[in-house]
Amino acid sequence: MMNVANGERDVKMKGTFTVDKAFNNNVIVARSESGEEVIFIGKGIGFGKKPGDVLSEQKYEKVFILADQEEQEKYIKLLAREKQETLLIIHEAIEKIREWMGVELHERIHFALAQHLVLALERSRNGTEIHNPFLTETKWLYHETYRISQQVVAFLYEKTTVQLPEAETGFITLHIQSAIGREFLSKKESGDLIDRCVSYAEEKAGVSFNKEGVHFQRFVQHLHEMIERSMTNEYPIEKKMIHLLKEENSLCYNISRNIVRMIEKSIQQSISGVEIVFLSIHLQRIIAK
C-alpha cells in the first residue's frame, strides 16, 4: 500500500491537501497541491471535515493513502454498500498486519482484503460452510504469514464476536502474501504444483504421508523454497552424495529427481542437483515415520 510514512505507524502528509469529500468520519477524498486525488483512510480523519477544508502537514496515526485510481474506485464502491463500523475494524486489522509483518503492503490489499473479510464475516454469521482446497499447502508454504492470519482472525472475533473458520485463515494468508509485493506463482499454480509433487511422491513410495507431521511440513516448505529461489549453484559434495543416495535409497532418489524435473518444467528454470539430495533426506524421514 502506498503511504507517506514518518516511521512505521505514523503518516505525515507532505504538503497540503484540500478536502473534496468526506465519506464518513474515517474516509475522505482530497487533492494534493499538484491536483492528485487521494483517499485517506483512518479513524476520525474525516470528523468535521467539509469540502474545501485544507489538511496541513501533520502526523496521523494508522492512516493509509490510496493513490491508485482503480483501487480508489473499487474502495469507494465498497464504502457505498458496507457499514462504516465494519470497514473501520477491517482497516484496524490491516494496520495490525502491517505492524506484525514489519513491511509495507501493496495498495491492493485495502480493497481486496477488505472485500474478502466483509464477505467472510457475512458467511460466518449465516453459518455458510467454507471449503479451502489450498489450506494444508498454505499452512506449510507460508507458515509465519499463516500465524499472523490467525492473529487477524482472533482480532476480528474480539471486535465482532464472529468466529471465522480455519479455511478463511488460509485465504487471509494468501491475501497478505499477495500484498507483500514478492513475485510468486499464482496461488492456484503454486498449490497445484505442490499437490502434484506430493501425490507423485505418495504414489511412487506406496504410502500416504501424514500431512500434519513435522517432516511433511519441512518437505512442503522445501518444495516452496525451491520454487521461490530456483537455486542453480553446484556444490563440490553434490556428486558424491548423489552417488551414495542412488546406492543406499534409490527409491527416494528417483522420486526426488523426478520432482525436481517437474518443478523445473513448471518454472522454466534449471535447479541445482543438490536439491535432489535435500528432497531425498526429507522423503526418507517421512517414509520412515
From TrEMBL:
Residues 81-186, 187-289 form the PRD domain. Keywords: Repeat. This is Transcriptional antiterminator. InterPro entries: BglG_antiterminators, CAT_RNA-bd_dom, CAT_RNA-bd_dom_sf, PRD, PRD_sf. Gene3D superfamilies: 1.20.58.1950, 1.20.890.100, CAT RNA-binding domain (2.30.24.10), PRD domain (1.10.1790.10). SMART domains: CAT_RBD. It comes from Evansella caseinilytica. One of its GO terms (biological process) is regulation of DNA-templated transcription. The lineage of its organism: Bacteria, Bacillati, Bacillota, Bacilli, Bacillales. One of its GO terms (molecular function) is RNA binding. It holds the Pfam family PRD.
